[in-house]
From TrEMBL:
Superkingdom of origin: Bacteria
SnoaL-like domain mapped to chain residues: 6-147
CDD domains listed in its UniProt record: NTF2_like
Family annotation (Pfam families): SnoaL_4
Protein species of origin: Paraburkholderia pallida
Entries under InterPro entries matching the protein: NTF2-like_dom_sf, SnoaL-like
Name the record gives this protein: Nuclear transport factor 2 family protein
Amino acid sequence: MSTALQRLIDKDQIRDVMLRYARGVDRRDWELVRCAFFEDCADDHADFKGRRDDFIEWVRERHDSPGLLKSTHFLGNCLVEFASDTIAVVETYFVARLEIAPEASGHRTMLDAQHLESPGISRVEVFGRYVDRFEKRNDEWRVAQRRTVFDAMQSHLVEAGGSALNSAWTLGRRDPQDPVFLMLADAGLREAGER
């Protein structure tokens, strides 16, 4: 296989890792998040600095809170630069949109201190970049080191009823009944009810 073709395959595999990470966080599929990182990965993510399993526990605690109502991570530009056949530096732009109720104090303290005392729901948009060192070990690309870079953030209170979507539409969920998991089960790619 040519080097150019192998680079295309490697880039595609790296981008898939990033997409699985975003799905894992938004759908609260923590095993999918875990598979994006090597066990010894060092992660610098806002108020968290540490290893993979501790990061997953930290983010899980916040996302499993009943007060974190919605989470959507949109990934944009993804530039993959190879240092060797087994090391790449990857910069991926993201927009994370969260809806946070007052009881999600961990997220609200970190992301929306200006509305900390408000009884309303905050909508927060975070703009940033994942700056990752990817490594290929045992023929598998994963994040070996991550630094989450924050470029901008905005938040506002959602007016009563301002967050409601049309109930006749297919709505996203943060559990095994989300449409993507149902479609995967229907296609035979997962068991029904499995994330």
